Amino acid sequence: MTEVARSYIELAHGIEQHFPGYIDAYFGPEDWKPRAKLPLAELSRQAEELFRAVECLEPSQRRTWLKAQVAAMQTTLVLLQGERLPYREEVRRLYDVEALAVPEVRFEEAMTNLEALLPGQGDLNGRLEAFRRRFVVPPERVGEVLEMVLERLGEQVRGRYGLPEGESFTVELVKNQPWGAYNWYLGAYRSRIELNTDLPTYLHALPDTMAHEGYPGHHTEHVLKEQRLYGEKGHAEASIFLINSPECVIAEGIAVRACEMVLGEEEQGEWLLELAQHLGLGVGRPEVEAMQAVMRQQRVLKYVSGNAALLFHEEKRPEAEVLGYIEHYALATPERARKSLEFIANPTWRSYVFTYTAGGDLLDELFRTRAKAEGWFRRLLEEPATPGMVRAWTAGKEGHEA
Asked: Superkingdom, according to UniProt (predicted)?
């Protein structure tokens, strides 16, 4: 099995040499990094050999995970060699999920509810943005409030999930990135989290963002998998994390549901009020409760970006039309719509947008069908899993083949 894991890591590094950014994190043996840049045709041959080797392994959760990951690597190599796949097929083959369009009626229902929550003059976009501005963190105090948020989340998570001694991460404020925040896992239980300040920093979004990237989201998942899979079980393939692969769906599903796993809505509201008062933002309990109601409706609007990606990549709609779609249905400012399209259009991230909603939906269905959300969430943090596995678990199939 070690040879299979080594081949997997060497293949990933080979792809990275043609597709910079493909490896999101690596903390395994340095001498497993290939030095020579191999032709794509040779990497494709190696991928086929690796897939056959994985298929010959004894059935296990580890085998199923590797099989899905290697299949996605083969798809990446197909794309790198210039073959164009239909966009929905690209998403399916990379992530093991379907790129589904959401009917606009769902967005319109949420917008109708927001109209009632935000009465007043002017269009809904303007009223929403005016309300959001009341929660903007002054730039000079972003670092201060980040420390408060992380301290609270860390207290909730460290004991609950048994994080190892010495785990930690730093937070850096950056600009000119296509994403809002990013976790760079460094290995040895350490991360660097970057928060993009191109757009205003909103207090009501910070707990979710830091839970997503840190506790109990990406940082927590990486730490526990390094400890349990790589350190204790010797699963060398767990020392590398790849973009554009099924594991991303699980990682983003964990991250988008991270905050609610450790803080109930009422507790989040009390905390948000406490932070707002500390910062002197001039908002009280009624405004905080209204913001929470607004955020519940906006959760539906997170699916707009997937529809926009289908318009842009599948239907080849003009950029201006897609921007207008995002502004209208996501209730986005022109600046936020532009940032969203920048992410969708980026060659690395063009299909990644579906990992967030598909991942969250997978977890929701698992928790709703099988109950015991805390136990399943912990299992996803610690074990190798694919979307197909989660669908099988949801259906009550406890085997590993999915």
From this structure: Bacteria
Structure tokens at 16: 């990275």
In this prediction, residues 204-220 reach a mean pLDDT of 96
pLDDT-derived band at 402 (thresholds 50, 70, 90) equals very low
Contact in structure between 50 and 8 (CB atoms under 8 Å): yes
Q: Can you read off the two tokens belonging to residue 237? A: 């393939």
Backbone angles phi, psi at 194, to 5 degrees: -110, 130
CB 97 within 8 A of CB 91: yes
Q: How far apart are CA 51 and CA 336, in angstroms?
A: 41
Contact predicate 266/289, CB 8 Å: no
Give percent of the chain above pLDDT 70.
99
d(CA 230, CA 2): 12
Q: Tell me if 25 sits within 8 A of 185, measured CB to CB.
A: yes
CA distance 374 to 367: 9
Give the dihedral of Cα atoms 263, 264, 267, 271; nearest 10 deg: 50
On the question of a cis peptide bond just before residue 216, with omega within 30 degrees of 0, the verdict is yes
Q: Which among 160, 156, 220, 158 is positioned nearest to 193, based on CA atoms?
A: 220
Q: Residue 351 corresponds to which tokens in the numbers above?
A: 């299909």
DSSP 138-154: PGGGHHHHHHHHHHHHH
The residues facing 190 across adjacent strands are 168, 187
Give the separation between CA 286 and CA 368, rounded to whole angstroms. 31
For residue 321, which amino acid is it? E
| pLDDT at site 20 | 95
The pTM (predicted TM-score) of the whole model is 0.95
Q: Cα–Cα distances in Å, from 108 out to 103, 132, 297, 330, 353?
A: 9, 20, 10, 10, 21
pLDDT band of residue 399 (cuts 50, 70, 90) is low
